[in-house]
Design brief:
The complex is a heterodimer.
Chain A: H1 5-25, H2 28-53, H3 61-79, H4 81-84, H5 94-99, H6 124-148, H7 154-173, H8 175-178, E1 190-192, E2 195-197, H9 202-224, H10 226-236, H11 238-243, H12 248-274, H13 284-297, H14 302-321, H15 329-343, H16 347-380
Antiparallel strand pairs in A: 1-2
Chain B: E1 4-15, E2 18-29, E3 33-37, H1 44-52, E4 59-64, E5 67-68, H2 74-80, E6 82-85, H3 97-105, H4 121-133, H5 149-163, E7 167-171, H6 179-192, E8 197-201, H7 205-211, E9 214-219, E10 222-227, H8 229-234, H9 236-243
Parallel strand pairs in B: 3-8, 3-9, 6-7, 7-8
Antiparallel strand pairs in B: 1-2, 1-4, 4-5, 9-10
The chains are: A mainly alpha, B alpha/beta.
């Protein structure tokens, strides 16, 4: 623990307090919006962990976000009232009927060739578990192949970028099971016990906010462990770490998978607050936008990247809805990004760290002066 | 008679017809400091690559004590007890000097075993001792990126000392150093004698004289001569290899 750890804890707690207080001043519409941005903040954490701490620039984080989102959305789609109104006693998604071949049975097992995949999703918690397991499993497989082969740097970015586009294409193409380009809409509310998480109520906001706080704290603690330190060492010099005896691909795969798990979790929460899942989650622009959030917030800071995501989204929402900027808001966001990269390469978090260092140094010299002054007064006596 | 720490038996590598190292055999005793000499292209660095697993050998074997470590994965060879310093100094630049050394104290290679906070008192003491030895106590909380070239080299030596392997391979530890820095490096290296088995590749003869006990001269991938400093300096074969068969002028 360094001298800086106490101020860092204070900053984290202040952030937690801030997002916990938001419902006091916000109307339901904005509360729902901020809840979405908190979900994006969770994505920022995932990007910071893999880019800032593991040195793996994943340009396909949307793949894991999308995987998490679709898994939960499948469950919520089956729980939706419309799925029960298709003339079968078991739920069947409405779009499957629209796409069904004439004469096929209105049953989830066999309405089309792949619809049986939906069967276990009749349990909401199966979707939840899969929303974590699927991204982690995909990341582990990618990690084992890529990192064992010692592929690094820009090549990992290209591979992840290609993968997210590939999966997006498959999801759009598999219309009978995924509703293709339209995605999954008209979903039921997420339920815990009898409680339904209506996206526009305060408890739903707290559900997301508490989850974000837990993710932040867990990610931060994770990088404070020895494994987190070794991970940063690997980021700085893979070879050196390897010759100190560390199994480098194992570390990279582990943290890549953790980052994917966080992204998957974010995907699920996004479905809870936005009530849809769509292939746009796997658009290239979305994955790159996440990287921009982290860059602006500070990629080597878990909290920085999270705040970056929230702040950029708030700015773009406000700017894009201001009449004068309605046409130009993307230019403004782009300009902010360019300025940050040029003048604050470590992002907002880097700026905060510098200010904190200066503050600590001043405090230290002040206390030294106080000590020497008291020494002097003792001498005078 | 002391034990043999490292045995190299007929080691060689064939790079598509070119044999950078060709049937090298040598044994290094426990606690010995062995210097590898040789002109450019003699195969010194390649030999280190073969021992540490960076390059797979095509013939021969390497034993660490009695364990056959030939062509193991690098991190396994490192775990077995072979540490290596690179020609181009490599440290963890975005971590502080102290954190660099703390990384090297982690004895367990796995991820899950390292999911814990802080370091043992023993580890912290080791780090303090090494910081003192490499003379970077005052720089402990600086980022490694801000160290001078010489300090970076010492920090990498410090990583090796903290790692505490049986055999340490040093590839040109004084490259790019001033005379004063070279001298300090030789003191650090000398302090390791006896505790570790060292193999050092070096060109700087002043440095070699300060540290060397036995020298092995490589030439065109083969062992040309072996002996102490005096024997090597007067060996006619070595003179011929370095200066051409007719000597200078």
């Amino acid at each position: 623990m360094s001298a800086k750890s106490r101020p860092v804890i204070v900053i984290y707690l202040a952030f937690f307090a801030l997002i916990m207080c938001a419902p006091l001043i916000l109307d339901p519409f904005w509360l729902n919006r901020i809840a979405k941005y908190l979900v994006f903040g969770m994505l920022g954490v995932a990007v910071a962990l893999s880019w800032g701490y593991a040195g793996i620039l994943n340009l396909g984080q949307g793949l894991f976000f999308g995987a998490g989102a679709y898994m939960l959305a499948m469950s919520l789609k089956l729980a939706s009232p419309t799925s029960l109104q298709q003339g079968s006693d078991k739920p069947v998604p409405d779009f499957m009927l629209w796409n069904a071949e004439p004469g096929s049975p209105t049953e989830l097992c066999c309405i089309n060739k792949a619809s049986f995949l939906w069967l276990p999703f009749q349990h909401q918690w199966f979707g939840v578990v899969m929303g974590l397991v699927l991204p982690v499993a995909i990341a582990t497989i990618i990690g084992i192949i890529v990192f064992r082969k010692r592929i690094s740097g820009v090549f990992v970015s290209i591979i992840t970028l290609a993968l997210v586009l590939l999966v997006r294409l498959v999801v759009i193409d598999a219309q009978p099971v995924t509703n293709g380009f339209n995605g999954l809409t008209d979903l039921a509310w997420f339920k815990i016990g009898e409680f339904e998480f209506d996206p526009y109520i305060v408890p739903t906001y707290y559900f997301v906010a508490i989850a974000l706080c837990m993710v932040l704290a867990a990610a931060r603690l994770l990088i404070e462990t020895r494994a987190g330190l070794i991970l940063q060492a690997i980021r700085d010099d893979q070879n050196r770490a390897r010759y100190l005896g560390f199994d480098v691909p194992l570390y990279q795969t582990f943290f890549f998978a953790v980052s994917a798990g966080i992204a998957g979790l974010a995907g699920m929460f996004y479905v809870v607050v936005s009530e849809f899942a769509s292939p746009t989650f796997m658009d290239l622009t979305f994955s790159i936008t996440m990287v921009v959030w982290a860059a602006v917030g500070g990629r080597s800071s878990i909290l920085g990247a999270c705040i970056g995501a929230i702040v950029i989204n708030m700015i773009s929402a406000t700017v894009s809805e201001t009449a004068g900027f309605a046409e130009a808001w993307k230019v403004i966001i782009g300009l902010i990004f360019v300025l940050v990269v040029l003048y604050m390469p470590r992002g907002l978090a880097g700026l905060a760290h510098d200010l904190l260092d200066r503050f600590l140094a001043r405090q230290k010299s002040a206390s030294q002066r106080a000590v020497s002054a008291s020494d002097a007064s003792q001498l005078a006596e | 008679m002391s034990q043999i720490a490292l045995t190299i038996d007929g080691l060689g590598v064939d790079f598509g017809g070119f044999k950078a190292v060709n049937g090298v055999s040598l044994t290094v005793e426990d606690g010995e400091l062995r210097v590898l000499l040789g002109a450019n292209g003699a195969g010194k660095t390649t030999l280190m690559d073969l021992i540490s697993g960076k390059t797979s050998s095509t013939e021969g074997r390497v034993f660490l004590h009695d364990i056959d470590i030939t062509n193991w994965e690098e991190h396994k060879i490192a775990r077995a007890g072979v540490g290596r310093k690179f020609q181009i100094p490599s440290v963890f630049k975005e971590l502080t000097v102290r954190r660099n050394l703390e990384v090297a104290t982690c004895r367990n290679p796995g991820v899950l075993a390292n999911l814990r906070f802080g370091f043992s008192k023993q580890a912290e003491q080791d780090v303090d001792r090494v910081l003192d030895l490499i003379g970077l106590t005052d720089e402990a909380s600086r980022l490694a990126a801000y160290l001078s070239h010489g300090q970076t080299q010492w920090l990498e030596l410090g990583l090796l000392i903290t790692q505490n392997p049986k055999v340490i391979l040093l590839d040109e530890p004084t490259a790019g150093m001033t005379q004063a820095e070279t001298h300090k490096t030789s003191q650090i290296v000398n302090s390791l004698k006896g505790k570790h088995t060292l193999i050092v590749v070096e060109h700087d003869m002043a440095f070699v004289r300060e540290i060397a006990e036995r020298i092995t001269v490589l030439h065109l991938g083969q062992v040309l001569a072996e002996g102490n400093v005096e024997q090597i300096e007067t060996d006619p074969k070595v003179r011929a290899a370095y200066l051409g068969s007719k000597g200078i002028g």
